[in-house]
Structures are given as structure tokens and as C-alpha cells.
Amino acid sequence: MISLRGSVPRRVTSVAFAAVLLAGGTVACGGGSASDSASEGSPTVTPATAVAKAAANSERITSLHYRVTGTVPEKGRLEAEASMRTEPAVMKMKMNATDQGREGQLEIRFVDEVMYVSGTAISSGKLDGKSWFSAHPAVWGHGAMDNQSYQVLPAQFEGNPTTQSMILTASKDVRRIGTETIGGTRTTHYRGTVTSRNIRAARDAAANKAARERQINNLDQFMMLRIDDMLTMDLWIGDDNHTKQFRMRGDTRATRGDTEGKPLDFTDGAPLDLTITFLDINQPVTVEAPPSEDTADLAVLADKAQAS
Fold this sequence. Notes:
There is one protein chain. The chain is of the alpha+beta class. The protein has one domain (10-30, 32-307): outer membrane lipoprotein receptor (LolB), chain A. The chain is 21% helix and 34% strand. The protein has 6 helices and 12 strands. A 12-stranded mixed β-sheet has the order 7-8-9-10-11-1-2-3-4-5-6-12. A hairpin with an 8-residue loop joins strand 10 (243-256) and strand 11 (265-281). The longest helix has 17 residues, at 209-225. It is elongated, with a radius of gyration of 20 Å. The model is unreliable at 1-9, 24-41 and 257-262 (pLDDT under 50).
């Protein structure tokens, strides 16, 4: 249990209290050749070209409905389904720690720079009889140093999946694996490995401003994943040159910090293995704040806990 006593900044106290509200103090979880064609009947393209085309199309995605499954360090096995929109930036997600069953469920919404959280994973007795708590300012889908989800979301869930799907463009060994059907759609499966050195090299070698900015974003997403060295990434691309699914695997570094503003300490973490499936793109997405009368403010709850 994280202590709330002592002189600490209000925002940091709110972050700590969000962790306390959640059970366990966390999120409620205690080879083909380069000449292979992208698809049958299509012009021959290299794997790198196919991946680059999919990345360019991902940049034009303004809304997304997606599913996430896999294992996240310090959280365990998670399943989530979410929808997001870029302008204005909103997101809603239902997340479940599968090992916890019904006691590991959370619903999270980001609206107008406020995060709302509800679910069986919350210690309801600390919510003053309300079903939700709110926290602000809250940020999702931005850079690694800009996001703020008050320790509710794993760091790896704070990234925009359309941007995460572009990381493979920095790979030096991307190759075609074969063809597979994902959600009823025929896709070509590619795989490659990526390191931060690869991304920096791709950034420095970028032919234009757009390509350079893409690699800058890739480096930021790589940092958010907290990969220790090498990320193995699989990408499934449809005949329309759109990403349908991607998988990220690698050993991570765990982050330790304290509430006094001391430097972060990166230590050995556990393996990361996440698969993200795109269910719908560029379809209407609406995210609404829950009723105010059923929502408790996290900072107020934290202040009450300190005073008691």
C-alpha cells in the first residue's frame, strides 16, 4: 500500500492515491526473401516498401476501434477493447486483468483532458459512494513524457496504436512470413526487429521532414514500451495496404521513482508481449463523461485521505 502522508505535491499525491484505489496498488491485477510480393496478384514489392506504405496509411487514421491482448510487465495478462479519436483527442477502454476474473475489470475514459475510471477493480469504499473517479489533467496518446494516466494504465497502453504500428519502418531485417486471415481479411504477415539505434539511424538518414518526424515519433513510442534492447515486431497488412494487426515482444526495463522528484531508476523488468488488432478505422467515435453526480474527484479523495 502506498502511503499518502507527508509533504508531497498535490498531483503526485493524486497519482499515488489512484494506485491505492486499485487492488494490489496497481491496475487491479495483483522467411521470405526481399523480393516476395505483398500479396498474390499484386506488383512485387519489398517487405520494407510494404511496411512503409502501411505506415503512411496509418498516419491518415483519425479514429480507431481496436483490441489488445497479451502480457504486460508488473500487470500480468490483460485484455482490452478500446475506441479513440484524434481530433478532439478522446479515448474509451474496457480493460480486464484476466487472472483476476470479475475483480479485475476497469473502464477508462479520456475526455477534455480528464480521465474517468470505474470498475470492479476499484476499492469502492474509498469513492464516497460514487461509481467513478476523475483525475485531471490527464493525457493519453501523446509522447512518452507527456502522458498522464495516474498509474491506472500500463505505460504500454498509453500510446496511440496507429503510431505504435509504424515502429517496424525502422527495422533493418523486416521479412515476409506468409499470408494469413485476420478477422476475415486476407493479410500478408511481416516480421522484423527494432532497436533504439535502428530508429536513430533511420531518423538521421530520413530523406525528408515527414520521414524524419515519423522516426522521431517511433523513438518516442519505443521509449514508452520500455524495451531494454530489441523489440520483435510482427505486422499483418491487408491488400489495401492498411495494418490489420501487429504484435510487439521484448524484454523491458521496470521504472522505479518516488514521490520526491528523484531521478527514475530503470531496472530489469519482465517480458512484454502485446497483440493489437484494428477492428474499424475512421468510423464515428463518441466518448462522454459519466454523470458528475456519480463521479468523485481524485485530488479531493487524496486530500481527505491525507487529512484522516
